[in-house]
Amino acid sequence: MGFEDTAGNIPPGRGTLYKLNDTRCFQNLDPVLSNVSVSNGLAWNDDGTRMYYIDSSTRQIALFDYDPATATISNRRTFYDFKTDNIPGVPDGMTIDAYDNLWIANYNGAQVLHVSGTSAKLLGKLKIPAEKVSSVTFGGPRLEKLYVTTISRGVAPEKFNEYPMTGKVLEVSGLGVRGTPNRRIREKCFRLL
Prior knowledge:
Layout: E1 15-21, E2 25-36, E3 39-44, E4 50-55, E5 60-67, E6 72-81, E7 90-96, E8 102-107, E9 111-115, E10 122-127, E11 133-139, E12 145-150, H1 159-162, E13 169-172
Antiparallel strand pairs: 1-2, 3-4, 4-5, 5-6, 7-8, 8-9, 9-10, 11-12, 12-13
């Protein structure tokens, strides 16, 4: 995420997406994308050649070509635009399933969007009883459950009746899809404090 002042305002375009260099851990992070406002979801397709990226302020999911050998991105283009399907709110966190389809948290939209990772077609909407849906990931023994996080900060007290799962983590079963294992990074870069 970019700069945020004490009042919670985020001036546009002041952030950067960095690449964690496997050999140097957190020393000298490599910038890969500038002019970012609210950096959020990242996902890669199964063969690792497509990288999906969310800068929430754009209300879009960007798609890059990704070269696994060099860990570089190129050919940025708009993959999915919330305006196309009149989706309220903004995209936030994101994950990908074993069919290379995206699951996108819809902040201020009370839902998770299911979008084809190849055609960008909206496959479905999973309604969530919380307005501020913040992130999604697959879990469970076979990665068959979708976990959804929601935010309570900034939600008016009267909204809690309409959105009773505000501020909770939800487990969704029976979607008929599985997630993909998360990509591992070198654990030596992380030390417990």
